[in-house]
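Bench log. Compound arrived from synthesis this morning; before running ITC I wanted a structural hypothesis for how pantoate sits in the protein. Inputs:
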Amino acid sequence: RARVAAWKREGLRVGFVPTMGNLHAGHHSLVKLAREHADKVVASVFVNPTQFGPNEDFARYPRTPEADAAGLADAGCELLWMPTVDAMYPYGANGAVHMRVPGVTEVLEGAHRPGHFDGVATVVARLFHQVQPDVAAFGRKDYQQLAVIRYMVRDLAFPIELLAGETLREPDGLAMSSRNQYLSAEERPRATLIHRTLLAMREGVATGRPRAEVEAQAGADLAAGGFEVDYAVVRAPDLSEPGDAPGPRVALIAARLGRTRLIDNLEFDVPFTG
Ligand code: PAF
């Protein structure tokens, strides 16, 4: 806070990239994006216990602080905040004041991971108070998380401009994610089916196939590829069920391959064909 306050006294604009560490090129691209909109960039690394369910991967989530610090410095980050759980939750995770964002948290990821977005909103609000940035960058890969944070920032009037960074992909289309390293050598090439299915969903909807049929086909294709599917859907940008009119859409998938749960999405337009 002292460093950020000093920068602000000099009239500098401060950007912020919150992360859970184990950083890859996708995170580095968020630092670069923040850098384009700010004079100084702060990043945080904190594996947030309140956003993991009891049977999720909090304990085994990969922690690589030295590599993270080096990569952030190379990407142009000036300040790294790595709080302890005690610093973040002085009354403990159970005694913490909790955020609850209504509506957008109740579907898709929110329905499959109860409490997850409450934990995300809780920690992001705290990080925003601690860091006090002018601008903050989040990845589009976590499409619904971005919607939750947008809602919270607007509703609580955080004086912070939000930036959305593009999803970075491996050459074979797999979206970059810290969880990709859980995939076995045999699973890794099969994981590309998620992106291929998103492309097929876009093609299906954009060429006029009924949405229900496209979603059912996507679910069946993923299941045939060995995935356990949580959802494979096409939604309006606010995640409501879209009508038949042309306009923007997002295809979203969450599916498990072995022990690894992967999410991805693809934004596209249904063109006006009149
Ligand atoms: O996207 C993430 O890495 C986390 O959900 C975030 C935003 C850093 C909150 O812990």
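What the model suggests: Strands lie at 14-19, 40-45, 79-81, 135-139, 161-165, 228-235, 247-257, 260-270. Residues 18-20, 48, 51, 120, 123-124, 142, 145 surround pantoate (CB under 6 Å).
ITC booked for Thursday regardless.
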